[in-house]
């Protein structure tokens, strides 16, 4: 007897999850979000198939990091010109764009393949608690195991 669920539309249906990031540690939150974006919580998970869900993150400006990461963590990028290595600390990046540190953390936890950007496009991060996806939300509990 086969245990396969099959390639049905119901099995691959995407669910919208809401997560409140207020007073949550960024790394632990990012791992749970990445798992949901990949679809690892579903019984039909396949690394080559895109079966993940949408995730809406609220209150990204109030996210926490442990230890001295706020002052010491550096985000680097290169402009591709000689001497073009640019560095920015977590505090400065969060002041500039509060959604970017969490987006970079989740991006680093996703597989480095062609599905990475597709999965990141399903991640919606907002500074405050208002968002335009109220009609789509089915799961209010979020992607945490609390």
UniProtKB/TrEMBL annotation:
CDD domains: Ribosomal_L13. The keyword Glycosyltransferase does not apply. Gene3D superfamilies: Ribosomal protein L13 (3.90.1180.10). PANTHER family: LARGE RIBOSOMAL SUBUNIT PROTEIN UL13M, RIBOSOMAL PROTEIN L13. The gene is PARPA_12259.1 scaffold 44939. The keyword DNA repair does not apply. It comes from the Eukaryota. It comes from Parasitella parasitica. GO terms for biological process: negative regulation of translation; translation. This is Ribosomal protein L13.
């Amino acid at each position: 007897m086969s245990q396969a669920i099959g390639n049905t539309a119901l099995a691959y249906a995407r669910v919208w999850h809401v997560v409140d990031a207020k007073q949550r540690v960024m790394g632990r939150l990012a791992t749970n979000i990445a798992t949901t974006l990949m679809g690892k919580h579903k019984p039909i998970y396949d690394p080559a198939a895109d079966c993940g869900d949408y995730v809406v993150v609220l209150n990204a400006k109030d996210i926490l990091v442990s230890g001295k990461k706020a002052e010491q963590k550096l985000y680097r990028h290169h402009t591709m010109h000689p001497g073009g290595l640019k560095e920015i600390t977590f505090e400065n990046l969060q002041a500039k764009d509060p959604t970017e540190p969490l987006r970079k953390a989740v991006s680093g936890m996703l597989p480095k393949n062609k599905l990475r950007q597709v999965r990141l496009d399903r991640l919606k991060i907002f500074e405050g608690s208002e968002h335009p996806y109220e009609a789509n939300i089915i799961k209010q509990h979020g992607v945490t195991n609390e």
